[in-house]
């Protein structure tokens, strides 16, 4: 099983959106038995909470299930459990390095570094623009799936 972890600051907006969208993609591609997906936060503020209402609305808009999405904190041992640890922005990446104790490890990737633009996925908690976040996460998730297919022969 290939294990993928999406990480953002609070695990209520971007990373659960990416988790749900990536699950949706792998289900459509009949890869659910080969790829497992989770998400986590670098901060403890929203642990145990469901996704932000804006994330839930955008997922519903695209008919993507939000079942089972509950905020949790990234743990040091997640480094060993996951094959791909995907941060949403540079700050997330730095915090992932700090929490896992594995700076600059190639399995830790900023989502949009997998695309041509390499920008940060803006946090809609602050911008209010869940549509833009969804668009960027969609592009990044497709690029991640392509990377996994290429590297893992799935």
Please provide a written account of the structure:
The chain has six helices and four strands; from the N terminus they run E-H-E-H-H-E-H-E-H-H. By secondary structure, it is α/β, with parallel strands linked by helices. It has a single domain, classed as Response regulator (Rossmann fold, 3-Layer(aba) Sandwich), CATH 3.40.50. It has a four-stranded parallel sheet with strand order 2-1-3-4. Helix 4 links the parallel strand 3 (84-87) and strand 4 (108-110). The longest helix has 23 residues, at 130-152. It is globular.
Write the layout of secondary structure elements.
Elements: E1 2-8, H1 14-28, E2 35-41, H2 53-61, H3 78-81, E3 84-87, H4 90-100, E4 108-110, H5 124-127, H6 130-152
Parallel strand pairs: 1-2, 1-3, 3-4
Helix pairs in contact: 1-6
User: Percent of residues in beta strands?
Assistant: 5-15%
Q: What is the CATH fold-level name?
A: Rossmann fold
N-to-C CA distance: 11 Å
Total DSSP E strands: 4
Mean pLDDT: 96
What would you report as the Rg, rounded to the nearest angstrom?
A: 14 Å
Q: What shape does the CA trace take?
A: globular
Largest sheet: 4 strands, parallel
Sequence of strands across the biggest β-sheet: 2-1-3-4
- For the record, the CATH class is Alpha Beta
Catalytic activity: O-phospho-L-tyrosyl-[protein] + H2O = L-tyrosyl-[protein] + phosphate
GO molecular function: protein tyrosine phosphatase activity
Protein name: protein-tyrosine-phosphatase
Pfam families: LMWPc (PF01451)
Give structural attributes:
154 residues, alpha/beta, Rossmann fold, four-stranded parallel sheet, 4 strands, 14% strand, LMW_PTPase, protein-tyrosine-phosphatase, hydrolase
């Amino acid at each position: 099983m290939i294990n993928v972890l999406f990480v953002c600051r609070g695990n209520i907006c971007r990373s659960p959106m990416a988790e749900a969208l990536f699950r949706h993609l792998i289900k459509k591609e009949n890869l659910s038995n080969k790829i497992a997906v989770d998400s986590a936060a670098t901060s403890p503020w929203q642990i145990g909470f469901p996704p932000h209402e804006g994330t839930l609305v955008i997922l519903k808009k695209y008919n993507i299930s939000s079942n089972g999405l509950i905020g949790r904190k990234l743990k040091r041992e997640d480094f060993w459990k996951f094959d791909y640890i995907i941060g949403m922005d540079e700050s997330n990446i730095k915090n992932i390095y700090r929490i896992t104790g594995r700076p600059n490890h190639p399995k830790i990737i900023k989502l949009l570094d997998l695309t041509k633009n390499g920008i940060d996925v803006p946090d809609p908690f602050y911008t209010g623009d869940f549509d833009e976040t969804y668009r960027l996460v969609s592009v990044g998730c497709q690029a991640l799936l392509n990377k996994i297919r290429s590297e893992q022969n799935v």
